Structures are given as structure tokens and as C-alpha cells.
Amino acid sequence: MPHTRSPLRLDEKRSALLVVDLQEKLAPVIPNACDIESEIVRISDAAEIMRIPAAATIQYPRGLGKLVSNLQKSVKSAAMTDSASFVKLPLRLRSRC
Prior knowledge:
By secondary structure, the protein is α/β, with parallel strands linked by helices. Helices cover 28% and strands 13% of the residues.
């Protein structure tokens, strides 16, 4: 019987990492922000190893600050984009429902 690859398995050719608005002044009011940051760093490191493209968004940086410092270092190859400038995401996302 041939092995069938699970459709839930990560495929680096069809994947991307997008970190959305985890900024300096937002993080303190997010429950478990330190845990979330740690997980994003871990996922970002894995994405870099797998050569999965990464990007991060920030909104209103003058008021909400930059991307949190741990992620600025971790998402080093990511494109930083002001989320207010998004018209549409450059990714085609499919529903799994």
C-alpha cells in the first residue's frame, strides 16, 4: 500500500510565515505575550531552516512602537510592512473547512 502524505503536513513550497502586529506597546496587554514571542521565535527559526518566506506587519509604529525586539532579531529576513497599507495579502489562503 503506497504512503499518502497528509494534507496537514507543512509543505515549504506552499507555506509562508506572517507575524502580525506584535508590537512594543501592544505586547504588554496581550495575555501570555512572552510565551507567544518564544513560539514565534521558534517557528521563525524553523522557517529560516526550511527556507520558508517570512514577513511581519506593524500598524501605526509612531504610536504602537516597532515589532518587539525578540522578533526583530528572529525575523531577520522578513519584510516589514505597515499593515495599514495592505490592500490584500500576497498569499492565496485556502479554507480547510
